[in-house]
Amino acid sequence: MDNKFIVETSARHVHLCEKDIETLFGKGAALTHKKDLSQPGQFACEERVTVVGPKREIANVIVLGPARPSTQVELSLTDARTLGISAPVRESGDIAGTPGCKIVGPCGEVEITEGVIAAKRHVHMTPEDAEKFGVADKDVVSVKIDSNGRSLIFGDVVIRVKPTFALAMHIDTDESNAACAFGACYGEIVK
User: Fold this and answer.
1) Does the pLDDT value for residue 83 go beyond 70?
2) Are 79 and 109 in contact (CB under 8 A)?
3) Which residues make Cβ contacts (< 8 Å) with residue 153, sequence separation at least 6?
4) Per-residue CA distances from 146 to 130, 151, 168, 186 (Å)
5) What pLDDT, in 10s, does the model give residues 9-37?
6) Which pairs from 16-22 meet CB under 8 Å and 24+ separation?
7) Cα(184)–Cα(151) distance, integer angstroms
8) pLDDT digits (tens, 9 = 90+) for 84-123
9) CA angle 95-97-99, nearest 5°?
10) Of all residues in the chain, what percent carry a pLDDT higher than 90?
């Protein structure tokens, strides 16, 4: 398993800025920690919102913390199509020029003019992990996932290196379903 890493499915979620947290959940509101995620300092919140697009809405979308500088909605391409939004595939945080949507909370709503993306599949690594795997930050690689009946090689996987990251690949629900990447699933970089 030395050359493999865990593959995790990242379902639809919302990252909120402080101002939007207050608008959606009330003056003075703060995100309520529910459980830690695999990336240090990141957590799932008790708070949920409804994401509204031109065609439909999706209720009960989880909010992830901590607060971010800009509000961002990460969807699968199937979710985006359901909402009627042409979400581009982008790295998290790269939201310039992306479509917006309405986000509704229990105390209010916000209309973001940009911020809806389908997250580019990626592998989080520490600098030590990157050295071990022979890759660098922003490299684009292919990753093979062995699964029961739907093994798959994903291309266009971006490597993201930071000392605070934990080794893990993130794919969205569409990608997870395509590869039957359920439960404990592992990937390896293929040259």
Assistant:
1) yes
2) no
3) 142, 143, 144, 145, 190
4) 22, 4, 15, 7
5) 999 999 999 999 999 999 999 999 999 99
6) 16/63, 16/67, 16/68, 16/71, 16/103, 17/67, 17/68, 17/69, 17/70, 17/71, 18/67, 20/71, 20/103, 20/110, 20/112, 21/67
7) 14
8) 999 999 999 999 999 999 999 999 999 999 999 999 999 9
9) 80
10) 94
With contact defined as beta carbons under 8 Å apart, do 23 and 108 qualify? Answer: yes
Domains in the chain, CATH or no CATH each: 11-119 (no CATH), 121-190 (2.40.40)
Higher pLDDT, 95 or 148: 95
Chain position carrying tokens 């409804």? 50
Mean pLDDT of 138-160: 95
Q: Residue 173 phi/psi, 5° resolution?
A: -65, -35
Question: Rounded to two decimals, what is the model's pTM?
Answer: 0.94
Residues 6+ apart with CB under 8 A from 191: none
Alpha helices (H) along the chain: 18-25, 77-83, 127-133, 173-179
